[in-house]
UniProtKB/TrEMBL annotation:
GO terms for molecular function: ATP binding; carbon-nitrogen ligase activity on lipid II; tetrahydrofolylpolyglutamate synthase activity; transferase activity; zinc ion binding. The lineage of its organism: Bacteria, Bacillati, Bacillota, Clostridia, Eubacteriales. PROSITE patterns: FOLYLPOLYGLU_SYNT_1. This is Lipid II isoglutaminyl synthase (glutamine-hydrolyzing) subunit MurT. The active site is at D360. It comes from Desulfosporosinus metallidurans. Forms a heterodimer with GatD. Zn(2+) binds at C211, C214, C233, C236. It catalyses: beta-D-GlcNAc-(1->4)-Mur2Ac(oyl-L-Ala-gamma-D-Glu-L-Lys-D-Ala-D-Ala)-di-trans,octa-cis-undecaprenyl diphosphate + ATP = beta-D-GlcNAc-(1->4)-Mur2Ac(oyl-L-Ala-gamma-D-O-P-Glu-L-Lys-D-Ala-D-Ala)-di-trans,octa-cis-undecaprenyl diphosphate + ADP; beta-D-GlcNAc-(1->4)-Mur2Ac(oyl-L-Ala-gamma-D-Glu-L-Lys-D-Ala-D-Ala)-di-trans,octa-cis-undecaprenyl diphosphate + L-glutamine + ATP + H2O = beta-D-GlcNAc-(1->4)-Mur2Ac(oyl-L-Ala-D-isoglutaminyl-L-Lys-D-Ala-D-Ala)-di-trans,octa-cis-undecaprenyl diphosphate + L-glutamate + ADP + phosphate + H(+); beta-D-GlcNAc-(1->4)-Mur2Ac(oyl-L-Ala-gamma-D-O-P-Glu-L-Lys-D-Ala-D-Ala)-di-trans,octa-cis-undecaprenyl diphosphate + NH4(+) = beta-D-GlcNAc-(1->4)-Mur2Ac(oyl-L-Ala-D-isoglutaminyl-L-Lys-D-Ala-D-Ala)-di-trans,octa-cis-undecaprenyl diphosphate + phosphate + H(+).
Amino acid sequence: MKRTWRFWVALWAGKLITMGLQVTGKKGTTLPGKIAHWLDPEIMRYLSAAYTDGIIMVTGTNGKTTTANLLASILRGAGKGFAFNQAGANLVTGITGALIQDARWSGSSRTSLALLEVDEATVPKFCEQVTPSLAIVTNFFRDQLDRYGELDTTVRMVRGAIPKETVLVLNADDPLVAQFGTDHGKSIYYGVERTPDSRSESQETREAKFCPICGTELEYSLFHYGQLGIFNCLGCGFHRPEPKILAQNVFPEEGSLHFRVGLTTFAIALQGYYNLYNALAALTAARQLGLNDSLIEKGLREFVPQAGRMERFYLSEGEITLTLVKNPTGFDQVIQTVLGADKPVRILIGINDLAADGRDISWLWDVNFERLGVQEERIHQVICTGLRAEDMALRLKYAGISEEKLVLEHTLTSALDLLQAQREENEVAFILPTYTLLFPLREILEDRQKKAGLSNVKANIRGEEAST
């Protein structure tokens, strides 16, 4: 592929900006990618051609970052180098920046493999220039309607953009994802036999109540969560495909998940059955790349959760779990994890409505907060913070949480102080923020953890020791 003068100007400008950011101690990839893409809108096409071992794309509504980082942990453990937008900058500018970081001044790449998280709305632009060798599709749920539009539009857009020559790694238990394999011959499915919380009936919000092929109402013999489960359409015969990778003997244990695939037992230091699917997606992709189960097991076991993905902090008052919330189904799964602790609970919920969070917060009324209300005796306190703290408190009041347990506090440090102030030894604490509150809260937690004499590494080791 012949490179133009615009490519060289864009590449070198991006490299210079990257160097400047690194000198100042910043790790941003978005600015170099933004400038480079402005100078040459085709730069992704040229840079991607250098990856002779292929490009892995990870997309979907929930779990993109965790899935990509789980696969990265496996690849690193196997001694493989790869380009990676680890920070989660998954738009065109962030992806371009990650490729520039991996590129030499000569335009060649330092590695032969790329692992790229791609926002679902960005998939069409990405696939115009890049043909992924492998594409992981995690799930589809409503998310930021003001940005993505209706869910069927997003699904159709992603499905139509992925090239036919790309091998698909698909969630068999999500009808919206499984349908991709009906007209795409190169598809590998992963799924779950059952979890301890799987049920034959469900009152949860489902995004795929009707068959995506013919529109007939789907029948389920088993629900895992949301629309994920074992489904069948009596109208056209569309059904949950047989997974090549099937998780069995699933059980949680002290902040981790255990499961078996075939003869091999795996464990990840994550809570929530939605993270089981993330692990299965990474496992399936790793097998497709030719890695054996011993390397995969090691990579999953040694995985350290990323920022705000069931991330644990150890303060003098006790452990706190921080996890991002951004849409109804994801929040429902977090609530399930919170209640699954089977201990008294204190919760700090932070809701903003900035552009990155989604301007429309009506989605809070689709979250099943009533599950907290039903078990209100276990909920000792809920602190609401953020720009829409009052809206969150009102939603919880209607869900059955008594007013004396609801606290409004807009200052983050004070909100965290309140969370810890009257905490008892047997209580568990969770902080659940939307995106723009995640990193400010995380900085406060990191600072307090250090003052308590525990670095992140020591904290993780201590947590692992406590769970064994």
